[in-house]
Write a structure and sequence with these properties.
alpha/beta, 5-stranded mixed beta sheet, single chain, globular, Nucleotidyltransferase, domain 5
């Protein structure tokens, strides 16, 4: 049973062949996490996966990385996917975008200034994720897909930690005005 005061947050981090996600209720209650694979880089399949996650968990807030903010390094395909998600899901759930600056502020600097540092910090805060913590990446290694879980968790923690600083996304009205 959900508490009336706890807000359920679903954070999504698209990756090359799927979606990393976490569901956080309140500030410290991690409900679910994981990676849903699509087999290949396919926005249609990724959008369907995200739609199923929203149907399953019924979040109060959907959190995504602000792909237009400074410091965001998303490829065109993922930017298109995020645009599509916001346009479709923004009609039924509150969508919040977190910037890299919000994400780095989830813990002490310089620890949270890198992905690996944030993942280690979050694994300490949420011990159930210790087994999913990827090894330290060498420069020649590709990023481990499990990092998407920690990226999504950092989005959720940033949103829950500073909800007033993260404005809800304003969707354009049918006539084009905001």
């Amino acid at each position: 049973m959900r508490k009336d005061t706890a807000r359920r947050v679903l954070a999504i981090d698209p990756l090359s062949r799927g979606v990393g996600f976490v569901v956080l209720e309140g500030q410290d209650n991690l409900i679910e996490w994981g990676i849903r694979t699509t087999g290949r880089a396919d926005n249609g399949k990724s959008a369907r996966v995200i739609d199923k996650l929203i149907d399953r968990f019924r979040p109060d807030v959907l959190v995504l990385e602000d792909w237009d903010s400074a410091g965001s390094r998303r490829c065109g395909r993922v930017e298109t996917l995020l645009d599509r998600i916001v346009a479709k899901e923004g009609k039924r759930v509150l969508v919040r975008l977190v910037t890299q600056r919000n994400i780095r502020a989830i813990g002490p600097l310089p620890l949270t200034s890198t992905k690996q540092g944030r993942a280690s910090f979050l694994a300490e805060r949420f011990p159930e994720l210790q087994a999913y913590l990827p090894p330290v990446r060498k420069p020649w290694m590709p990023e481990d897909d499990r990092m998407a879980i920690f990226d999504a968790l950092s989005f959720a923690v940033a949103c829950v930690r500073t909800p007033k600083k993260i404005a809800p996304l304003a969707l354009p009205a049918p006539d084009g005005s905001v």
